[in-house]
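Sequence in, structure out. Go.
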Amino acid sequence: MRRRTPPPPAPLPQRHGVDPVRVRLPLGGAWATVREHLVERLTGAGPGTVESMFADGLVVGADGRPVAPDAPYRAGMFVWFHRELPAEVPVPFPVEVVYRDEHIVVADKPHFLATTPRGTHVAQTALARLRSELGIPTLTAAHRLDRLTAGLVLFTVRPEERGAYQTLFRDRRVRKEYEAIAPYDPSLALPRTVRSRIVKERGVPAAREVEGEPNAETRVELIEHRAGLGRYRLTPATGQTHQLRVHLTALGVPILGDPLYPEVTDPVPAGDFRRPLQLLARHLEFTDPVTGTRHKLVSGRRLGSWTSYADWADGMTDVPGDG
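Output:
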């Protein structure tokens, strides 16, 4: 089998921690010029946007030189450009670094901040912020947390080592422990291990449980309870989308602040950072595949509804400090 030739390095620097867009011109098609292809390809960019990019020299080839508006189409050619960043409301909470060495960065992500650029969340992501703040343009995420979930995320520094760290998660050699605040049900027998089959359909906000071979497993323990609320320790053995939220909902104790479970609610306006989902990736434990170091890392965040339910209900967010 022929090994695929890697693309040339990007000739453009990152902007606000975000990589430039890379396009490889495909085989086939009747485009006479590179510009014609991009006009057809980038239909969502708006009328005249691509033409302006070429006129301003913002589309470049592998040598970093601007591609001329009349440059002939050549299949297999790479071009790069920066898309206009979407208007984003800044997430007003810092990303804390809990561990850093020459190979990895482990960050304590706040609620409401996406892990990596996707959709309308681009510069306001943990990855983009850390690249800019730490001056590490090669930083990449080894795994992800939902935008609404706070806690520990592992990033890699060197691209050639990323696969080794991703394999840790794929092979379930990382112990992840979460904390959640949800209603307390005295009739719910805990601890217990929940197993079910979860499916997440593209374009559908919420995942759901279906009949069939289980593909999701979570250990659920009650740490303590008071005033009708429980503080739960969740240890997932698998990593299905929304797994912890689905499993607690199935037990009849949905996580506080969840906009999807047990029912999908209307989206909150951009910039509404009240009542964050009370789910926190508290512990991350693994043996570094490159250095052999054993890491046992702990989030410094506390879930606001447990610290003060009244403040959380009134719109305060999670707070720093050991919980």
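Check: Helices lie at 34-41, 49-55, 126-134, 162-170, 243-250, 304-307, 309-313. The radius of gyration is 23 Å.
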